[in-house]
Design goal:
Immunoglobulin-like, globular, alpha/beta, 4-stranded antiparallel sheet, about 550 residues
């Protein structure tokens, strides 16, 4: 616990540290009795699915039960981990304005349903701990001046200069609330009025958040996603993102959680330029065990649409990890759009417009953020990934091939692969949903009728079936080779522009596979003939066909 005290001392006063140490010890002793020590050792057999708890629905059962049925029926041999996006009661943002961290949204099911899922799949919960809903008891108690909630939120002077603060949105830094005495309270709101930032300067608040995370471990979570964690500490006159105190508190979180469940995986969610993003690995042993590979989705899409692999190869070659105990969380699509901040410094404005133009030509949307000088710039492409890859000519056939290739690249990248539900079932832009909600992100958040989806997946001619079948084949083959272990090394052999080779080597050095991809619309000679293509069981092809690939052993 000495290290814990030192970490806390970087953030809090001596008397505050004393209080925290007592509180933390109490939490550890309490939750040690409640957490089942079921080991989690990630291998090449592990692939994660990102999903909402109410992603599919059917009359007569809870939505979480329908989700489990979908997984059991279609993906039980391919998916071992499930990221359940926030399944708590919420007031906005499709779950990310949490009203009560300790409850399951009754519209989805209950804790028994979560437990049932946890019996078959390793679960990742969302720690939405940068902010909480304005409808939460925490904020209501704060505005009612109840002593136990004082200090839970960050009050600001509305006349203060906030020009240095990094803004992920165009909304104000703070919003005005009124307490029960009629007094105005100006509270920090990084994302929206209904997402009120928690104040980690208050030790009691930090203890409460630790309790939430330990509660998740006691209810089946093995992985916890730290949502928007880079914004958790505010300092006057600073950017209020990635501050040293935030890193220190993440280190405390990991230390405390590991004392209860040693295999817990903390995953940092910081949608920022790559160099900033990877700081959340810490020294490779003390912060996040995984970091979202946010550069992958936009850079991969650009490379496919431009038919050039030069920038992608440069970037992948630069991926360095601080230890062999951490890895990237690789994905191409999620419940959010495709963030473009991570390719700042990699893509020029003209190159970024390749993506923007494709989004617009495929009925997608662009979301903007406010810059320190008051200007606005794109921060997110709101477009289904498969729809995005159709390009400006809206070519469905090319879009399909590019999409399958993109998922194959992601499956070969060093780290843990994560596929969004809508990627697995070949969904496209849900434009009607955006019209209904008025929110750009709805475009990739359609909820599906279980029976309708099941019927489509039983039709061998349907687009959904073609996508799911191909992805299942790739996942199944990948799981047979130890070189695809998340922590196994990789290299990027030289290849002509348009061609990408990711070489994966098993940790023991015994298995080597060259994953060769053609990003172009014309055939390219294969420099690595002579081996076997494990995808076909035949000799490696002399030429890699347009928008095709081979995994050569």
């Amino acid at each position: 616990m000495k290290n814990l005290r030192e970490l806390l001392s970087q953030v809090y006063s001596e008397s505050q540290v004393d209080r925290l140490m007592v509180g933390i010890d109490h939490l550890i002793q309490s939750y040690k009795q409640k957490v089942i020590l079921d080991p989690l050792q990630l291998t090449e057999k592990d692939v994660l699915m990102i999903t909402y708890g109410d992603q599919v629905y059917q009359k007569g059962e809870s939505k979480l039960q329908s989700l489990k049925k979908f997984l059991d029926n279609n993906l039980s041999h391919q998916i071992s981990l499930v990221h359940l996006l926030p399944f708590y009661p919420y007031s906005s943002d499709d779950g990310f304005s949490v009203i009560d961290y300790y409850e399951v949204n009754e519209d989805m099911g209950d804790w028994n349903d979560i437990d049932s899922l946890a019996q078959s799949y390793s679960l990742m919960f969302d720690g939405v701990i940068n902010h909480i809903s304005q409808e939460s008891d925490w904020l209501k108690g704060y505005l009612a001046n109840l002593p136990e909630y004082q200090g839970y939120f960050k009050e600001v002077d509305p006349n203060e200069d906030f020009s240095q603060v990094t803004r992920p949105r165009t909304s104000p830094v703070f919003h005005e609330f009124t307490d029960t005495d009629g007094k105005p309270r100006y509270l920090w709101t990084t994302f929206s009025k209904d997402q009120v930032d928690l104040n980690y300067e208050t030790p009691e608040l930090f203890l409460q958040v630790l309790d939430v995370m330990l509660f998740y471990l006691s209810n089946g979570a093995k992985l916890i996603r730290l949502d928007a964690i880079g914004f958790m500490w505010k300092e006057k006159g600073s950017t209020c993102i990635h501050l040293p105190q935030a890193h220190a508190l993440i280190q405390v979180m990991r230390s405390v959680l590991e004392k209860v469940y040693p295999d817990v995986v903390l995953i940092s969610e910081t949608n920022v330029p790559h160099k900033e993003n990877i700081t959340y690995f810490g020294n490779g042993h003390n912060e996040a065990k995984m970091v979202y590979n946010f550069t992958l989705p936009p850079l991969l899409a650009f490379s496919l649409l431009s038919e050039s692999t030069t920038k992608f190869k440069e970037w992948v070659s630069s991926l360095v990890l601080p230890s062999d105990q951490v890895c990237f969380f690789n994905f191409t699509a999620s419940h959010d759009g495709v963030g473009v901040r991570p390719v700042q410094g990699i893509l020029t404005d003209d190159e970024l417009n390749v993506l923007v133009d494709s989004v617009k030509h495929n009925n997608g949307f662009i979301s903007y953020k406010t810059n320190p000088d008051g200007s606005e710039s794109p921060y997110e492409l709101n477009c289904n990934y498969k729809s995005l890859l159709k390009g400006v000519d809206n070519n469905a056939a090319f879009g399909f091939q590019r999409f399958i290739l993109s998922q194959a690249v992601m499956l070969c990248m060093p780290g843990l692969p994560a596929l969004y539900f809508h990627s697995l079932v070949g969904s496209e832009n849900y434009v009607e949903g955006v019209k209904q909600t008025g929110r750009n992100r709805t475009i990739n958040r359609e909820k599906l009728d279980f029976q309708v989806l099941d019927k489509e997946l039983n039709d061998n001619a349907s687009e959904r079936t073609k996508v799911l079948t191909r992805l299942k084949q790739l996942i199944q083959i990948r799981s047979s080779y130890s070189c695809f272990n998340p922590f196994a090394p990789f290299s990027i052999p030289e290849a002509s522009d348009g061609l990408l080779c990711i070489q994966r080597t098993s940790i023991d050095g015994q298995t080597v596979i060259k994953c060769v991809f053609n990003f172009t619309s014309h055939g390219i000679d294969n420099p690595w003939v002579g081996g076997e293509d494990v995808l076909t069981g035949e000799a490696a092809p002399q030429q890699i066909a347009p928008l095709s690939f081979a995994w050569i052993k």
